[in-house]
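Protein modeling request. Please complete all fields; requests missing the sequence field cannot be processed.
Requester role: graduate student
Desired output: 3D structure, token encoding
Chains: 1
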Amino acid sequence: MMFQSYALFPHLNCIDNVAFSLRMRGVSKVERRAKASEMLRLVEMETQAERLPSQLSGGQQQRVALARALVTNPRVLLLDEPLSALDPFLRVRMREELKRFQRQFGISFVHVTHSQDEALALADLVIVMNEGRIEQAAPARAVFDWPGTVFVARFIGGHNVLRCNVEAADAKGARLRGPRGIAIATLRPGLEAGSVVHVAIRSDRMHIKRAGKRLKAVGSGNSLVFSREALESRVAAVEYQGAIVKLRLESDWGDELTVTLADQSFYTAPLAEGDVVGIDWDDADAHVVS
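Delivered output (290 residues):
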């Protein structure tokens, strides 16, 4: 197990920290130090072998903690939020390293995290839990693109969730009515006419219209047109995030929505707090969740 706080012994140097579990197993000093040295070499910490934890950076301490966890050749390694104590830049660097180590050692990592970015970047299988119950277990892309439940869609982030009524349904799909009676078509079979469902739409798949202009969402095409009347909303907040600009929208017909625009698209027709805009999406991007 690799602890969130790393839990290195402050009075032991790096090589003795790594060798500690072997010492508890009765392995000879020569053998355990040789194996600990090999593990430090694998995590690129062999030059720091004689240093104390207090003489290391956060990233270096993490590497030593990982070497200590791996020195006994476990079949499964539990990592308890191992990146939470690092600054954002180092966190990105170290999650790349963790992925490399996992492939190099060929053992299963169970990585516990509250960071959606971390889970999506690292996992072959993402398990989203809510109050001890598994809401969804699927590959990272499936969880993000096709969330299984309302909780997953909201928790994983990057989605807007709309409450809709099923107006008509057959074996091929259904016609839904969303906020303000907007029509939404879905190819999902098995829905029951008259029932209530929720639809998740990615923030970067939402489209905005203002003063006759269409702002292009991240990944959207250049020639999109509204196929229906756009829902009216007000811009509540504008947050510049470098390559993208995130808008928080408020309305009198439902929950807050978020729209993510490419920065170049946003600055061709900038919006400010209080502006009224129309929002729309392509029905192919509307995903029915349970």
